Amino acid sequence: xxxxxxxxxxxxxxxxxxxxxxxxxxxxxxxxxxxxxxxxxxxxxxxxxxxxxxxxxxxxxxxxxxxxxxxxxxxxxxxxxxxxxxxxxxxxxxxxxxxxxxxxxxxxxxxxxxxxxxxxxxxxxxxxxxxxxxxxxxxxxxxxxxxxxxxxxxxxxxxxxxxxxxxxxxxxxxxxxxxxxxxxxxxxxxxxxxxxxxxxxxxxxxxxxxxxxxxxxxxxxxxxxxxxxxxxxxxxxxxxxxxxxxxxxxxxxxxxxxxx
Length: 260
Ligand code: OAD
Prior knowledge:
This protein is of the alpha/beta class and about 260 residues long. Helices cover about 40% and strands about 15% of the residues. The protein has helices at about 5-15, 25-30, 50, 55-60, 60-75, 85-95, 110, 170-180, 200-205, 235-260; strands spanning about 20-25, 95-100, 115-120, 120-130, 135, 155-160, 185-190, 210-215, 225-230.
């Protein structure tokens, strides 16, 4: 099947689905200029997880951890949602996409305008007090690092999930519930190797649902994907939305012609 044929098939499956859930990873934000984690130029090829993204690393050297997060915040605060994010807003508006479960901490799905977004790994735009749990919203990266809690003056940490930490129970339960209900998972730009997020599409598959995957390369999810669209998220998603909108418009047009 050629590329247009694959887009057409994926779009028709999306239109036929009753409950589509999205799973996104760093790849959807790559075209907004935010580095991914794995691969040749990924963050984990330049930085060590155990020095920057674990609770132990923070206890050892909070300033070093904050220095890295401040650098990432600078990139993220200057980034804007791309066509891929906006296409997901359209799919939600059309009633096809019920919710997005994301591993991204950049907040770009919210900024684009999606209403239902579950941020499994937290959000880099927030800090959380290590003592009293008070949460702080950052409108820009903190000037002085490590930043302090405005309530109790203990250290703030980035409000993200680090390696070795559990995803908050309520978020994980919501994500599992949504994927258990879904008859279609739209998986975009994730290597699928970090758990439990990588397992979520498998729930849909086990329940007899379908998987559409968009990625520039094969991932740990590709082997169970019914449709694999090997392209950039912005290109594939924009084409899907255009196909769906054209089809819906022509249906409306046919219906109004019949009424005349
Ligand atoms: P990864 O960096 O592991 O994977 C990014 C995926 O996006 C890869 O499969 C790429 O092939 C794909 N990709 C890159 N550019 C793309 C594009 N323009 N369009 C479509 N796909 C593209 O990122 P995640 O899977 O999100 O966790 O990583 C999962 C978690 O591992 C992250 O949330 C983070 C990380 O360590 C924590 O920090 C806890």
